[in-house]
Amino acid sequence: MSVSFQVLCLVCLALAIVSCAPAQVTTEAPAPTTVAAAPPATPLSAAPAATAGATAIATIAASATFAPTATAAPTRTAPPTIAPPTLVPTATPAPTAAVTCKTPLSLTPSQTEGPMYLANPPQRSNFRTDAANAGAEPILLAGRVLTPDCKPIANARVDVWHTDAKGNYDMSKTYASRGYMLTDSEGRYEFATILPAIYTGRTAHIHVKITPPGGKTLTTQLYFPNEATNKGDAIFDPKLLVRLDETPQGKRASFDFVVGP
To answer: Among the four residues 35, 109, 168, 189, which has the most C-beta atoms within 10 Å?
Structure first.
């Protein structure tokens, strides 16, 4: 309700009080025996009523309380909370397990090179993509080149060749299922290849040449466990069996070569 309307209501109330005030009536006393001139009559005055009305207005005005319109306090937006950055520790490469020996390791037996070796193969370690190996079972041939006292030999040349998915050797210069690689600082090598198909008169096998830096070349062959044709192979040697394991990535054929100076 506005202030002007409230004041107007007070004025109307005051006028109502004034109009309702009783008029003063003067009763003349009976004249004495001796007739004397009556004093002039005092005219009726509205002053007392007006005064009463003004007093009522003042009282009402004083008692009226005009509540000021509340002003909404401004809304303060809290500043966004910024989380401190999360520090991700740098991953530390897992250390390579050290090779231990209770006694000096025996040298890896040598075997014949065979007639299917091609000199100067390319440096490559993935034979699975060779067209002649399509449809064959993939394996990972991996291991180390070590000294008899278990020290890894870095930069040793590991030269590998074997038959394709149909049991044939590639004698052309495409070098299918042929290649070499150098061992790393821990003496490790790794070839992504296939399980060789059986060559006529032989069991499944892989030819390998190991040449340490400045050392003599070891020529040998590797064989697979549980092959029915192992017993009928004239040069099969159980000391040259790989360890065959099933992994999520497929079969892994592991073998550590031990070579002399």
So the answer is: 189
Tokens of 193: 């290849």
What tokens appear for 255 in the block?
């073998």
> Are the CB atoms for 207 and 161 separated by under 8 Å?
yes
Band of the pLDDT at 261, cuts 50, 70, 90? Answer: confident
In a domain? residue 22: no
Confidence (pTM):
0.63
Rounded to whole angstroms, how far apart are CA atoms 186 and 156?
11
Using CA atoms, how far residue 56 sits from 2, 18, 52, in Å, is 21, 10, 6
Q: Which domain holds residue 254?
A: 131-258
Two structure tokens written together for 8: 């107007």
From CA 113, how far away is CA 213, in angstroms rounded?
20
